[in-house]
Design brief:
With 178 residues, this protein is mainly alpha-helical. The chain contains five helices and no strands. It is globular and about 50 Å long.
Length: 178
Amino acid sequence: MFRTFAVVRQLHEMLWYLVEAAERTTDSQLSEPVEQLRGSILRILDGGVPEILASDVERVRAEVRRTLIEVSEEARGGYAAAEHTSDLHPSADLVGRDLRSVRLCGADLRGAYLIAADLRHGDLAGVDMLGADLRDARLQAADLSETLFLTQPQVDAAQGDATTVLPPSLRRPQHWLA
């Protein structure tokens, strides 16, 4: 049962990202693989325990990852991402950095370490945050409404307040209201 739960959890996480990818893409060539992956994952989940445990989650994850990167590139394309400094890249170590004066729109910060980074008053439109570590990141008055692949656990781990703008799919954490 626990092994099954672990697989199902991973598949549901991938589905969550694919739902957002479907909403973000305008390219029909990208929409098709997104929908195919969603269908494939739903078929696995509709199967019984043996089918779920026999699924090749790593293969599915690799396909989802590749597709999400393509959707991210398309979505970020309109933000002139080429203007970013060289330290804004996937898996960047931005721990404790003051990023308030840095142009972030359209940056690819997948897997970046933004622990205790200062993003106050920042516009994070088109910023890919897939897997970014936002523990204790300062998001007061930041606009995250158009941030890509932002999750509730990331928001919950960060600092924010009533002026932080979140995507409609995410809720303001209780500790932001105190």
